[in-house]
Amino acid sequence: MTDTAIAPAAIAPTVAAPVVTDRLHLLPQTNRLRALHTVIRDRDASRADFVQTSAQIFRQLLDTALDLLPVVSQQVRTPVGQTYHGLRPAAPICGVSIARAGESMESELRAMLPQTRIGKILIQRDRTTKLPHLHYAALPPDIARSQVLLLDPMLATGGTALAALALLREYGVFEEDVVFVTLLSSPEGISAVQAHHPRVRIVTSAIEERLNGDAYMVPGIGDFGDRYFGTDQPR
């Protein structure tokens, strides 16, 4: 996979607040969820607290995302000899994490669905130009048969998400078969994804106020990958 630069989504000076629809799912803003956000948004939070608390939010996000996927009927016999009329996924489920930050969500998905395959896409944004560069992808060859959970904790400008979605389309994945699972979203990022891929569903735990001049979300949590993996701290 060659290193390819992809034009970022334009950052409008003012973007209207996104409307929650069947394509944009915002977790219920419960007291519990806000308490979890209070921990991860605290700049003085320890790395252990940041990691453990993020995982609790990831579990809520993934539960919501999985509930959006199509199902079919399945009957099973219970231990007391009765029939239970249940459900099972209608298609294989594949997680795709956008490295590096998206890898933080993999362990929760594996815990919930141990049999699920996970692909990876490496897209890095230049800190100066804000251009996302596609460096690497490892996806199952038959991913087009799957329902895809695209994993990235941050949806800021939308440039990285658009690059990942374009790559999935090259592999034959239809928009309606993708659920983008993200911790924080900006109005600008949501607008960019919905404009280019209107049938992709987005699941997020918070919609931020805006992007600042450095393309960080406000109020935000800073660089998620640095804080999660500890690369913002000296040894």
- Residue windows where pLDDT falls under 50 for at least 5 positions: 1-13
Q: What is the average of the pLDDT values?
A: 91
Span between N and C termini? 33 Å
Chain oligomer state:
single chain
Fraction of residues in H or I helices = 25-40%
**Cα Rg:** 18 Å
Strand/helix succession: EEHHEEEHEEEEHEHEEEH
Structural key phrases:
235 residues, alpha/beta, 9-stranded mixed β-sheet, 6 helices, 13 strands, disordered N terminus
Concise structural overview:
With 235 residues, the protein is of the alpha/beta class. The protein has helices at residues 31-41, 47-67, 106-112, 159-170, 187-196, 224-229, and strands at 4-5, 24-26, 71-77, 83-89, 93-99, 117-125, 132-138, 147-151, 154-155, 178-185, 201-207, 210-211, 217-218. Helix 4 (159-170) links the parallel strand 9 (154-155) and strand 10.
Protein described:
With 235 residues, this protein is of the alpha/beta class. It has helices spanning 31-41, 47-67, 106-112, 159-170, 187-196, 224-229, and strands at residues 4-5, 24-26, 71-77, 83-89, 93-99, 117-125, 132-138, 147-151, 154-155, 178-185, 201-207, 210-211, 217-218. It is 29% helix and 29% strand. The strands form three sheets. Strands 1, 2, 5, 6, 7, 8, 9, 10 and 11 form a nine-stranded mixed β-sheet that branches. A two-stranded antiparallel ribbon has the order 3-4. Strands 12-13 form a two-stranded antiparallel sheet. The chain has six helices and 13 strands.
